[in-house]
Amino acid sequence: MKYHRYSRRASKALAVGFVLGLGVLAPTAAASPVYTNPPLVNPGTGTLYITKLYSPTQPTQDNGEPNTTITSTNTPVPGVVFSVQQVLYNGAAIDLTSPDGWAQAAAAQALFGDSAPSGSGYSLQLPATSCTTTATGACNLPLPLGLYYVQETTTPSGVTASAPFYVTLPMTNTAGDGWISDGSGYAVYVYPKNDKVNASKTASAPTTPVAGGQITYTVTSDIPEDVDPVSGQVLVNAYVVTDTLDSRLNLPTAANVVVSITNPGGAPAPVVLTQGTDYSVTLTGSTNTVQVTFLAPGLAKLSAAGQSDLTAGIPHGSGHEVQVTFPGTVNSTLNTQRSTAAGDIPNTANVYPD
User: Fold this and answer.
1) For residue 343, with 0-12 CB atoms within 10 Å meaning exposed, 13-18 middle and 19 or more buried, which class applies?
2) How far is the C-alpha of 4 from the C-alpha of 263, rounded, in Å?
3) Which phi and psi (to 5°) does residue 312 adopt?
4) Who's near 309: CB < 8 A, 6+ residues apart?
5) 224: cis peptide before it, omega within 30°?
């Protein structure tokens, strides 16, 4: 019989901000091993333990067991809020006391990956339950047994957000002959993976913006150095940069959004990527947002750059970076929508690497 552990991928979301002359406001693995048959699951409840740490120096594990080494040698992240929702099948909780229930749990993870379940009979129970990490970076929830979808909904400034993941409660131990326990009942321990990702934003524009004037924005962000446990190489699965412009700025054309990979120390010159091949640009007028999404060839270049830094021993944050440059044109609403500091035009950029 196959008992699924929890599925998670490393994902980060970071917004950083500061004010320039114009008032610019700026910024894994799924495991499904096969086990010998453990004792049958008894109906009841269990406890989900979640621990959030800054950039763990040891690989985070996804086997559901407690990891005292990683918690004692890394810095905890307090104030992170996780939303936990039970996954329903045909409107009912998935029954993990039966083989059919485990099959339903496995199917949900295969169907939806890291996304919330929707369709094929699957849905989420409402309302969601939440827990907030304490000074130890940990929080826990007593829960009925079943399959759960966990999302990080609140992240302190300067901390990266982990990707959503599925987890079953209970989970088998590594020997496959019993269920993980905290001494008083079923328990599962998860360590949502994260990394520190530095991002900055600059603006080049006249001292006093005027209608029709142009402001050039540059968003610069780190490349993650997460190592794939299978290949042993840096692997960037996804990378998205979004920037929501102030309403007093018009969106650029897609052709004017330039993306490059800069080199440590500035030499050699940055590698300018090819739009449509390495990345795509999405312009959303309703939200006044510019979004850059890296495509497979671009992700391969990011992975190679990250691996180059790792091999060379360059500290994370001091190596290759992603640079997105684009103009925003000041529109005619400038004079009627002044902020408290005349002429200030705030906006926010976000970086979502995985």
Assistant:
1) middle
2) 42
3) -80, -5
4) 223, 225, 264, 316, 318, 319, 320
5) no
Q: Is the dihedral of CA 289, 55, 306, 62 positive or negative?
A: negative
Tokens of 264: 């440590």
Q: What is the pLDDT of residues 328-353, one digit of tens each?
A: 888 876 555 544 343 456 556 656 55
| Amino acid in position 190 | V
Tell me the CA distances in angstroms from 235 to 31, 144, 162, 274, one per residue in order. Answer: 17, 36, 16, 20
What are 123's two structure tokens?
């849905």
d(CA 217, CA 288): 14
Q: How far is CA 240 from the centre of its chain?
A: 10
> How far apart are alpha carbons 94 and 88 in whole angstroms?
6
- Return d(Cα 218, Cα 198) in angstroms, integer: 14
Query: Is-contact 248 331, C-beta < 8 A?
Result: yes
Please name the helix (run of DSSP H) or strand (run of DSSP E) that holds residue 298, with its range, or none.
Answer: helix 296-312
Look at residue 150 and give its three-state secondary structure: strand
Tokens of 253: 């054309």
Q: What is the dihedral of CA 304, 309, 312, 313, to 10 degrees?
A: -140
Helix residue spans in 95-241 (DSSP H)? 99-112
Which H or E element spans position 310? helix 296-312
For the question of whether the overall pTM of this predicted structure is more than 0.85, the answer is no
pLDDT, tens digit (0-9, with 9 covering 90-100), for 174-226: 888 889 989 889 999 998 866 566 778 888 765 566 777 788 889 998 887 77
